[in-house]
């Protein structure tokens, strides 16, 4: 069923006056409590009073915006757009100086220009974006003299972009009504600044409806007619985001718009919408513009500056050489320009030309849909730019346990992505996966091994496995995992059959230097009954070469919300090793034929007609 809380506004034309000019605002406080102020502004001397869009310097005080949010990523603007100058503007009151600085690719600072202000004044300083090809940024510093200095409405402006378009937001949600409403409230609170914001599509695929939240009607009204609320069966993230894309391209059939995908459980910085829209509209050619991910639990830390995927080893989230990773952004800035292969859909903007040329996402339900789309767009000649300073806070990946039902989709969908976008060396891939499966078995993760085996087998079954968008197989995977006790998370103080005192924590030895030899030895120990007794193991130490030494390992879940109990089961281990070997052997032999089937089916799988069928009658 589809419901609309308010009629979507009439789409504006490409001459929309409010879109042009603004590249980014100068903000000195984050959008929510608990987020680091140092990501926005830093006091270097004296006393400073900060508000979201203004601040006051006491006499003889200094403030810098050489920060994650305060910097203009000049290198990215010079490389990907035709913009060759930016102007900093602000309203000032009092006396002091405003100075603009730049950094080089190595982080070395240099002065650009500055001015002295007094009384009621307006600052307008223009700088050239002409010496930043390999890296560097631009920012503003402020200092007061004998009197105080007040600054407000700071902003960086650019000439009118060649494609001044509005951006339609798509939020995919599943049983997180509070998180989704909070994101909508954050958008509504900053609505006056979001001239480029068009319709906001909420695609609700859960049974705990966002519309039932007590604040839904209020936030719908606050969004001033921009909100469109859609419900549908659970088709995963791929289905949720594609439904928004489907609806937008229907409404925007006569002119262009940007589509911005956004997760429901992020902490949103609305300013990122302004920056991503301005950058996309100014690019010389259409580019995907992605926001960076900061950790929600550790909000000063950046996940990575830019990513690529290893499509042979089937590894996502690889760090582009030179990019920051798990960096403290209050202490370190990304000076070097780094180019991404794709950007995850926690927040990513796709211009309409890219959607038209690339088509719709694959109906893979969950995981790797964004990666596959990024590589498909790349093959169509389009670049992905992960834009520094445009960020959202998202759940820390390192606090998500890998022994989860989602691992099935990660394996199956990574195989599909590799089949579509590489020569697909099935033998090399099979060897890689078999090594992982043996390690899972040695680490007493039998359910995880079974989950991966099913992912391999379903890939080999061919494109028909995607016929229903993933609903059936989600139930199958969850049912499969019920047979494996170690997939269940227990309260650390209430582990079945274990007294409250628990087991002694055994810390891991240094990593082995010869993994294959150690793996073979550990398996031999397990099969011949030479393992030790029962121990507790921390999440950091839960590597297979440590866990495999014991008959029972009570392992802390990566989420830190409980523990998993892994018990040695020799019969099950032998059976899974045989199944793993058989599945990988079939992958090595039949993989190329399966890969060709997916290539042949790609146009149909990603077609509007196929997605209309999956969405059902309400999408007609």
From TrEMBL:
Pathway: Cell wall biogenesis; cell wall polysaccharide biosynthesis. SUPFAM superfamilies: Nucleotide-diphospho-sugar transferases. Residues 440-616 form the Galactofuranosyltransferase-2 C-terminal domain. GO terms for molecular function: glycosyltransferase activity. Keywords: Glycosyltransferase, Transferase. Residues 50-158 form the Galactofuranosyltransferase GlfT2 N-terminal domain. InterPro entries: GlfT2_C, GlfT2_N, Nucleotide-diphossugar_trans. Belongs to the glycosyltransferase 2 family. This is Galactofuranosylgalactofuranosylrhamnosyl-N-acetylglucosaminyl-diphospho-decaprenol beta-1,5/1,6-galactofuranosyltransferase. It comes from Geodermatophilus siccatus. The lineage of its organism: Bacteria, Bacillati, Actinomycetota, Actinomycetes, Geodermatophilales.
